[in-house]
Amino acid sequence: MTCEYLPTNCYTCKKCLICFTLDICKCDKNVKPIRVGNPQCGQQIYSRIFTPNEELQAANQFLFSANKKFQYNSNFNIPFSFTFCSTCNSKFQRLKGEDIRKIY
User: Fold this and answer.
1) Tens digit of each residue's pLDDT (9 = 90 or more) over 21-33
2) Distance (Å, whole) CA 95 – CA 47
3) Where residue 16 falls among pLDDT bands split at 50, 70, 90?
4) Could you say which of 57, 73, 77, 81 has the lowest number of CB atoms within 10 Å?
5) Facing residues of 47 across strands?
6) Which among 89, 101, 80, 95 is positioned nearest to 12, based on CA atoms?
7) What share of the chain is helix, strand, coil (3-state, %, to 5)?
């Protein structure tokens, strides 16, 4: 069974990006979360776009594993948008930085 990815959830941990909880919540999942100017600690959201790039192996694997874990059925052959919480964005940026250092 596949689940549709909702941009109101973090792609890799499924934290609600409206109320910032990992628990099941009653937030409206049809409303796209918005960034605020001065967020509280841990309540920043990061919109990202995946573009196929074979050189970023660790960063891509981070997304592939979330896709498999939550059964999003995302198509990694074409660009698509997703959203991270601050914790997952930090993990992704570290992995992406390691991949870039390996290339150069």
Assistant:
1) 998 899 988 887 7
2) 17
3) very high
4) 77
5) 83
6) 89
7) 30, 15, 55
